[in-house]
Design brief:
Number of domains: 2
Largest sheet: 2 strands, antiparallel
Number of helices: 3
Number of strands: 4
Strand order of the largest sheet: 1-4
Radius of gyration: 22 Å
Strand content: 25-35%
Order of helices and strands: HHHEEEE
Length: about 90
């Protein structure tokens, strides 16, 4: 079972690093020479920060519903159980 469908953490982090590098490399050289270094670092940090994942297991819920599930070109009504795990941060 996968909680978050998508890339693994190392892929996401590398993608963020690449975006950050590309933004810095594409900046006008005069801007980089004249910008306030601390402000620029704060800007980049805020833009590319990945919010820490917080899982609220104490608020988990379960729901059930009948849905059509496909198998070999046919659909059948089946009971589907979904687990809901609230969280905050970047999934």
């Amino acid at each position: 079972m996968r909680i978050f469908a998508g890339d693994d953490l190392s892929t996401v982090l590398e993608r963020q690093r690449a975006k950050l590098r590309n933004e810095i490399r594409s900046e006008d050289k005069n801007k980089l020479l004249n910008v306030n270094e601390a402000d620029y670092i704060d800007y980049l940090t805020e833009k590319y920060l990945i919010d820490e994942l917080q899982v609220y297991a104490d608020r988990k819920t379960v729901s059930a519903a009948e849905e059509l599930v496909g198998y070999q070109g046919k659909s059948y009504p089946k009971q589907v159980i979904s687990y809901h795990l609230p969280f905050s941060g970047d999934s």
